[in-house]
Amino acid sequence: MKFFVDTADIGEIKALAELGLLDGVTTNPSLILKANRPMREIIAEICDVVDGPVSAEVAAVDADGMIAEGRHLAKIASNVTVKVPLTWDGLKACRTLTGEGTMVNVTLCFSANQALLAAKAGATFISPFIGRLDDLGVDGMDLIREIRVIYDNYDFKTEILAASIRSANHVKLAALIGADVATVPPSVLKSLVQHQLTDKGLETFVADWKKTGQSIL
Ligand code: E4P
């Protein structure tokens, strides 16, 4: 499973990239608002740090506007992935931009039929939003499972990018189902390493090692 980080915070991205943990980055208008800097500058900086796909979302809601913005964003760096919403206009923009060799991430996916349409429109990535479905009392993981089956049935190459991930358990379940990518907030990515028995075991080993009076070096 590939790990993308879902943030526009360049400090967080640099720290995670140094660990070699990052396969890509996703941003959205809300994350750009939070970063409070010009989008173009943010995306260019992220693309300098991360080699993998960096999603930059269009603001237009009509196909022509999305295509124009997408072409503009794609010029920032070769790893920019243009993010478009899952609407008819978004699908049209997806078809045009992928036809021009630009990677496209179709976002705001909440149903298997939407994901089927995105794959048929040639999407590079489909982003089903797990957490936002969970918020409605619907199991978001069922959507990942359904899309996996459909894409495998027809051998679609569109990658399933599990999004709106809120917990370490979401990451584990998406990996078990076979999502190709998980885009994860930095705090959740860091939480994956945590286990109380690891901390407890390490404490004991450190204490016992001290008692041996030995030194390895
Ligand atoms: C994905 O690309 C989105 O940016 C993101 O995962 C949305 O997550 P949220 O529902 O926590 O805002």
UniProtKB/TrEMBL annotation:
Can the keyword Transferase be found in this entry's annotation? yes
Q: Which GO terms describe its biological process?
A: carbohydrate metabolic process; ketone catabolic process; pentose-phosphate shunt
Q: Single GO cellular component annotation?
A: cytoplasm
State its Enzyme Commission number(s). 2.2.1.2
Question: Which Pfam family would be a valid example here?
Answer: TAL_FSA
List the SUPFAM superfamilies. Answer: Aldolase (SSF51569)
Q: Which GO terms describe its molecular function?
A: aldehyde-lyase activity; transaldolase activity
The main place the protein resides is cytoplasm
Domain of life (superkingdom): Bacteria
Q: Where in the cell is it found?
A: Cytoplasm
Q: Which pathway is this protein assigned to?
A: Carbohydrate degradation; pentose phosphate pathway; D-glyceraldehyde 3-phosphate and beta-D-fructose 6-phosphate from D-ribose 5-phosphate and D-xylulose 5-phosphate (non-oxidative stage): step 2/3
User: Which reactions are catalysed by this chain?
Assistant: D-sedoheptulose 7-phosphate + D-glyceraldehyde 3-phosphate = D-erythrose 4-phosphate + beta-D-fructose 6-phosphate
Identify the catalytic residues.
K83 (schiff-base intermediate with substrate)
Keywords recorded for this protein, A-Z: Cytoplasm, Pentose shunt, Schiff base, Transferase
In which family does this protein belong, per the annotation? Answer: Belongs to the transaldolase family. Type 3B subfamily.
Q: What does this protein do?
A: Transaldolase is important for the balance of metabolites in the pentose-phosphate pathway.
Descriptive protein name: Probable transaldolase
